[in-house]
Amino acid sequence: MITWVNEAGRLLAAGESVVLVTVARAEGSTPREAGAKMLVAREQQWQTIGGGHLEWRAAEIARQMLEADCAYGARHIERLSLGPSLGQCCGGVATLAFEVLSPADLGWIGSLATCLHQGRACVRRVVLSPSGAAAPVMLDTSGNGGHRRDACSLWQKGDESELTDIVAPQGFNIVLFGAGHVGQALVKILGTLPCTVTWVDERDAQFPAAWPSNVIVEATDAPEAFIDQAPPHSYFLVMTYSHTLDQRLCQQIFQRDDFAYFGLIGSRTKRRKFEHRLRDRGIGPERLARMACPIGIEGITGKAPEVIAVAVAAQLLRVRELEDQLESARGDSPAHAMAAADLLVR
């Protein structure tokens, strides 16, 4: 899920103009990487480019651009030295691109949202001229941008600059079975992370009245279907009210060889029992080793739902980071790739 695209579409459809702020170039130590984004309206802002004085100054410039008599025009580039000019300890230099988005931009925003929903990366090209004039945004939705996370390049072309912005699906898809206390606590945390969540339970009344925008609720008598429908490299979490249902879901998940993570809530005693039952059904020890149970990062022993949820979210993020290391290592030496793969399965 790319939250800035969804949020921009919602605001523009409501007739509100906003400014998209992008970290176009990051030199040295900066709070966020190139590609990080923030949306700024007259009274609110969404997402972050790192906080502190940098973000405050960016929001100030963006709100000036929303005024009719602004000298910046519709697009602007600002190079900010975090140490001397902003007094931040990072000491690096962040080059920010500012773009005023109006309802007239709904066309390319909608095309971008559709492309991302289909799992394809997009390349967005924006010309930033000294006059601040707004040439049409160029969007390549062919998927040729690859499957990397957001990345930016800023090119100088005479008096003009061109921002090449690769926008890709986050690829962090979670299927969560169980809407009990831990599931509800976990969804609140996942709602703040760059992921999509399919939340599955047989009990419709168990779901809350509202849930985060990156969560899809599925009340169903056939939860196993959502295992088969999940895209490759999905993250599966099993925490239902029934051990019998848990076991069915575990067996179905083990039918796949392409999951990034599989966690089962429960104690070490539950793990031993499930391993015994699953071995009797043909699941080998090397496959069973990929099941995280108990779930959550080590060292957090609290049993309150909120504590478990924090530990599980941290474990998911750790696996995600290791996946990124593995992806980078594939383009590196075989030794580096093997080391990253070893970390991923620990």
TrEMBL record:
<dbReference type="InterPro" id="IPR014308">
    <property type="entry name" value="Xanthine_DH_XdhC"/>
</dbReference>
<protein>
    <submittedName>
        <fullName>Xanthine dehydrogenase accessory factor</fullName>
    </submittedName>
</protein>
<dbReference type="Pfam" id="PF02625">
    <property type="entry name" value="XdhC_CoxI"/>
</dbReference>
<dbReference type="InterPro" id="IPR027051">
    <property type="entry name" value="XdhC_Rossmann_dom"/>
</dbReference>
<feature type="domain" description="XdhC Rossmann">
    <location>
        <begin position="174"/>
        <end position="316"/>
    </location>
</feature>
<dbReference type="Pfam" id="PF13478">
    <property type="entry name" value="XdhC_C"/>
</dbReference>
<feature type="domain" description="XdhC- CoxI">
    <location>
        <begin position="11"/>
        <end position="68"/>
    </location>
</feature>
<dbReference type="InterPro" id="IPR003777">
    <property type="entry name" value="XdhC_CoxI"/>
</dbReference>
<dbReference type="InterPro" id="IPR052698">
    <property type="entry name" value="MoCofactor_Util/Proc"/>
</dbReference>
